[in-house]
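ok posting inputs for the FE2/S2 (inorganic) cluster job
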Amino acid sequence: MRINVNDKDYTVVVDGNPSLLEVLREQLDLTGTKYGCGEAACGACKVLINGTPTPACITPATVAQSKKVVTIEGLEKEGKLHPVQEVLMEEDVFQCSYCAPGMIITAVALMEKQEALSDSEIVEGMNGNICRCCTYPQIVSALSKLTQKAKAG
Ligand code: FES
Ligand code: FES
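and the output
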């Protein structure tokens, strides 16, 4: 099967109906996307499929055929991190960072949908992503800074 990930076309093997997460990590060596719960409950494995944050652990790889998949590795463009990545790094938000790829993917989609967000909209938009180090307040505060910058133009 052909699959497009981070603007590159790949041929992958889908015998046995592997999940998208298995294909990304084991066949394409894109290990930035993490395995957490395996049941769409933690958000660690989220990737964008045609712009929508999607848990890759429960998504059959075949679902991604003819669609555009973006993983955490695909957010950097020409050596420049995505503004969401930049603000989360500047604010030194994460502790172990295991949740970071899924959090960032979710936040990128959220910010692209609507740039000016209240804190409660950020909380609602990030719902479904679990951080075992409980960095939620720092994540919301950093994303809030980004949204304020966007509002200021
Ligand atoms: S590993 Fe997919 S949502 Fe937890
Ligand atoms: S920083 Fe450790 S799980 Fe989020």
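notes: Residues 94-99, 131-133, 135 surround FE2/S2 (inorganic) cluster (ligand 2) (CB under 6 Å). The longest helix spans residues 136-152.
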